[in-house]
Amino acid sequence: MKSVIIRLGLDAILFLAVFMLPWWVSISLAIIFSMLVVNYLEILFVGLVIDSVQFGGQVGSVPFFFLIFCTVLYFAVLSVKKRIF
Amino acid sequence: MHYRPRVNSRSQNFSFIKNAIIVFAVGLVVAVGTFDKGFVVGPIQNFGLAFSAVITSAVSKPFNLFSSLLEGEKLAANNRVLNDQYNSLVSYCAAEVESLNARLSEMEIGMGRNEFASSSNSKAAYVIGKPPFAPYGKIIIDLGKASGIEQNDLAVVGRFLIGKVEDVFDKHSTVRIFGQKGDKDLFQVGEKRIVQKGEGKGSLSYVGEYLDADQSIVGEMTRLNDYPEYLFGKVMPVETNAGNKYEIFWSSPVNVFELAEVTIIKK
């Protein structure tokens, strides 16, 4: 129960950050939180929102760059965590 | 010896399926988004705009309240400064008015205006013209019977007597200026008030015979013998005339040519 509350709290912080703060702050927070929380799928949502709100769906010539980057990040973190623990 | 949790094949399968679903979902979003960006991005952008507006107003309200409090404090300080300035200006103006009044009364005393102006027997009259054929011997004033002017009232400028009211009409009067040619009047000359017979030499000037060449009389004031309470004119340097007689000449300092206002005093 406690871990659910903590997760919801971190989600709320990330939700505010992704709409109000620059993308690099949100990404940094997302990386940190994904290291702390198991199966942190919210990182995909962060990528999608950064793409949509801050870049209009396309970063340079790459569409949904942050969504793809966050997906890769998710699997990387998953893999790292699997190796560590 | 490393500890590694046991992972059975079932959970491995679940993990694989979950990851596959994630990759598929992301791929689907990217594909749809590439094909129709608005379909994916639009709703998120609208939500983001609404959300930031709500957050911004919620955050800015306390700041607005705080800044309005600061503004109020600033306005109150300005108000205090302005009130102080206003009070000092009021006291400055009051002091100025007082000093101007004092100067005015000093000047009035100097000009002799308020000696008679305060009297109920006097009236200020404007000079409105000169009658024809009497260029500077008479003046017309704007007061007449209606204002209570009577014949032989005195016309005074400052402390100097210049003439007498001659004809009185309803709304105007004529004043005969002293010192016209042929006028013969008695004067008191100087501090000693020596009575001297003067003969008119033109407007507001007289000439008279004198006993000796004493120049100390020069600059002394003269008064008409009939009205010794008013000044008439100043004595000029003593001269000798053709018959080896000394004569003095006295003239009023009032310039009849530029006369605009006189005080009429009841006889």
From TrEMBL, chain A:
<keyword id="KW-0812">Transmembrane</keyword>
<feature type="transmembrane region" description="Helical">
    <location>
        <begin position="12"/>
        <end position="41"/>
    </location>
</feature>
<keyword id="KW-1133">Transmembrane helix</keyword>
<protein>
    <submittedName>
        <fullName>Uncharacterized protein</fullName>
    </submittedName>
</protein>
<keyword id="KW-0472">Membrane</keyword>
<feature type="transmembrane region" description="Helical">
    <location>
        <begin position="61"/>
        <end position="80"/>
    </location>
</feature>
From TrEMBL, chain B:
<keyword id="KW-0812">Transmembrane</keyword>
<protein>
    <recommendedName>
        <fullName>Rod shape-determining protein MreC beta-barrel core domain-containing protein</fullName>
    </recommendedName>
</protein>
<dbReference type="InterPro" id="IPR055342">
    <property type="entry name" value="MreC_beta-barrel_core"/>
</dbReference>
<keyword id="KW-0472">Membrane</keyword>
<dbReference type="InterPro" id="IPR042177">
    <property type="entry name" value="Cell/Rod_1"/>
</dbReference>
<dbReference type="Pfam" id="PF04085">
    <property type="entry name" value="MreC"/>
</dbReference>
<feature type="domain" description="Rod shape-determining protein MreC beta-barrel core">
    <location>
        <begin position="127"/>
        <end position="266"/>
    </location>
</feature>
<feature type="transmembrane region" description="Helical">
    <location>
        <begin position="16"/>
        <end position="35"/>
    </location>
</feature>
<keyword id="KW-1133">Transmembrane helix</keyword>
